[in-house]
Amino acid sequence: MDRLLAEYAMASLVHRHGRPLVLEAVRRALDRARAAIAAGRSIDPAGIEADIAARVQAVTAPSLVPLFNLTGTVLHTNLGRAPLPEPAIAAMTAVARGASNLEFDLETGRRGDRHRHVEPRLRRLTSAEAAIVVNNNAAAVLLVLDTLAKRREVPVSRGELIEIGGAFRMPDIMKRAGARLVEVGTTNRTHLRDYEAAISPRTALLMKIHTSNYAIEGFTASVGERPLAALAREHGLPLVSDLGSGSLVDMTAYGLPPEPTVRAMIGDGVDLVTFSGDKLLGGPQAGIVAGRADLVARLKRNPLMRALRPDKVTLAALESVLALHEDPDRLAQSLSSLRLLTRARGSIEAQAQRIRPRLAERLGDSWSVEVVACRSQIGSGALPVDRLPSAGLRCVPSMGARGGRRGRSSKLQALATALRALPAPVIGRVNDGALTLDLRCLDDEAGFVTQLDRLAAP
Ligand SMILES: *Cc1c(COP(=O)(O)O)cnc(C)c1O
Fold first, then answer.
1. Is residue 193 within 8 Å of residue 155, measured between CB atoms?
2. Can you say whether the dihedral through the CA atoms of 116, 118, 121, 123 is positive or negative?
3. Mutate which of 164, 243, 259 for ligand 1 pocket (most atoms within 8 A of beta carbon)
4. How far does residue 136's CA lie from ligand 1's centre (Å)?
5. Which of 149, 291, 164 lies closest to 225, judged by CA?
6. Ligand 1, atom 5, residue with closest C-alpha
7. Phi, psi angles (nearest 5°) of residue 178
8. Which of 288, 376, 392, 399 meets the CB 3.0–4.6 Å disulfide criterion with 388?
9. Residue 390: strand, helix, or coil
10. 95 vs 90, 98, 192, 238, CA distance in Å?
11. First to last CA, the chain
């Protein structure tokens, strides 16, 4: 062991990664070599060194890495949702590096409030009286229910009992917060009289949930925020709306499908609106509650707030992204996620035409690569039905009948695996006997093309 560690290659590993990691790798590699000897196999010293280097590499390579999201889903929850604009990244870096006035009032020199960095902008952009930020929208909903509805009842339409990404299920969140869910209406139709009939002295608030990842179509009816707000007011109850995506600007102004804005909800008389920071808002992971000042003050006083509060890096990014929203005329350029969502099909197709020969050359004769029209999704549950016209590269194994369907499918999986193994992994979509790369989100074209040289074509 000592002799091995004294060698130049090992010394360089120790220099780069520190002694304990390398020592552990050497121990394991030697154990394996001893086992090989005991089993009567011959061993090669160079093989041991390679084994050590591979073990060190395996544990020191970063786990969380940037990648190319060519799935066609722009706000992909598994792939980190919204890309952040440069000013937000700069703001995060600046506060990450040292001390900041996170909870320090520079005017008075006394203790300050961390929400103050974003609240004035949130008020201006939503017309709400007050707002606070927590770690994500699930936390925002939990905080609202825990504060306002503990041991009391919350009527919710059966058509709105959402599940988002498996772990977030409205009935479970209610239970966690100690609130009793009272289901009203039916899956496809809920009327104002259903809410009315559900209201009792035990009712804490009325709740509306934006069905953000599905659409109920056909013979349907639901009650909008405005009439529900009137009913809530009549009974002295707050109306809470879990908006999910929560756009601060009118998406139709950018040629995108309509999505309710937080401002419109407040205008309709909703008392508290909860929404995500990293969906249509295009910012960091965060949850925002905007609405009536007295209710927001109660949320702030809840001891849970201490556990759910955002860190300085999140607040810095959010402040910066909110600042961009103050100039909606430039937002389609300044906000990265909106820029991707509004990319014209023509520009994506031109990019696909540029890249096609490079990918085709790399994949060789056993693949056909063509430029195709495809449709992107906004993702993160926003605007679930609408699709954005896009363009991509469709890779199909051109092995003819050989291998049949099973052979084609395993070849497609092999290509998907090879793309994922690149230094900046490339994630596409396998369906209909092809692997399609939707280029809507391809910002770094040069980086993508350069690393194609390292693609091991199956
Ligand atoms: C996305 C979403 C949530 C959860 O938000 P996170 O920010 O992912 O925690 C809750 N409710 C609705 C309606 C949503 O769309």
1. no
2. negative
3. 164
4. 8
5. 291
6. 137
7. 75, 20
8. 376
9. strand
10. 9, 6, 48, 37
11. 40
